[in-house]
Write a sequence for this structure.
């Protein structure tokens, strides 16, 4: 029911605009994380924007020097495949089954809407992020771990209260922050320690 | 009711994280524009993300060469002041009264949460964008005009149906696209011409 673009646009621009229109769907993919500012869950587009802002403001804590503009590009595109593959919440047992295959297929389908040169460029950015191959990718992934931790903290629990969340699964997320930033990883450790003390995170044996 | 950060974080990082938490509110600031992918209005965080994606994919159409990473940073921060100043919808008569003063005051208050060096840095980015002082700012502003035009098109009307929207007010928005990109301005002109033909935009004398 979306209106098709008018005729007479060049094929390259038309393909790019159809991709940009399809990308609107990222605003409808809900994550498990609660917003700090309202009583609802966050969507992937909002999340991606928040990561971009965090990269800009926290770049000084990266363990290796990063190109901020490049890191921002990585986080802007990192969740696009979830338009077709859906979000895979970490603390919901089984939710991540086949995630790699589903996201791989989604990348083929989604990036394939773009002109071939741009499909390859965006695919390369996505692969770089997923593999954590560069300092920018490792720092972007650290933000992708830190942001929901911060939202959980502000919420006084958030997804830490889901069935699959216990100290060890939360600590595994903390490790993703450490991998990009020792100092932000240490801050995240403080959040988790204090979250355990307050009963917002369950110890493993509980 | 948001949980304060735990004690024992350095003051600089604490200030940055409080800003990042406050920025969560951008996800609750509603724009007039309809989403293409769902039956609801867009919020400022989603909008800012969509502009970042458009900068990445459409940079080749900028009239002057742009640093894509820099342009992406500009659009990521460009609407933050609306957390306190609110959105000023263009087609709602009177909604933009005092907009400059309100946004100026909001910038002082919001960016003032950051450490002084970063407050100055983010303020400079915001000023650069607002003034359209650089090729990156002009292209970012072009995306800020083009994105709601595209959403209106996909919706078959959108904010073009609001009381204050007629051909001349819509053409004034088109001019903001032209200022950053002749070719995307020409595409926008096609959307407006065809929108008029289909009755999605009112002629001035109607
Ligand atoms: Ca993710």
């Amino acid at each position: 029911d979306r209106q098709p673009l008018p005729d007479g646009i060049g094929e390259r621009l038309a393909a790019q605009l159809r991709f940009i229109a399809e990308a609107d769907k990222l605003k409808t993919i809900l994550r498990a994380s609660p917003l700090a500012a309202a009583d609802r869950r966050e969507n992937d587009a909002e999340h991606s924007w928040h990561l971009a802002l965090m990269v800009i403001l926290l770049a000084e804590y990266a363990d290796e020097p990063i190109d901020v503009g490049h890191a921002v590009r990585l986080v802007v595109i990192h969740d696009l495949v979830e338009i077709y593959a859906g979000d895979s919440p970490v603390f919901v047992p089984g939710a991540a089954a086949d995630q790699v295959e589903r996201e791989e297929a989604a990348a083929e389908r989604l990036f394939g809407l773009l002109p071939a040169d741009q499909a390859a460029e965006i695919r390369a950015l996505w692969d770089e992020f997923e593999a954590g191959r560069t300092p920018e990718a490792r720092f972007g992934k650290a933000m992708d771990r830190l942001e929901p931790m911060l939202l959980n903290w502000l919420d006084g629990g958030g997804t830490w209260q889901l069935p699959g969340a216990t100290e060890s699964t939360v600590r595994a997320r903390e490790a993703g922050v450490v991998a990009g930033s020792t100092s932000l990883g240490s801050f995240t450790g403080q959040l988790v320690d204090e979250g355990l003390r307050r009963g917002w995170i369950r110890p493993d044996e509980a």
Q: What stands out?
A: The longest strand of chain B covers residues 30-34.
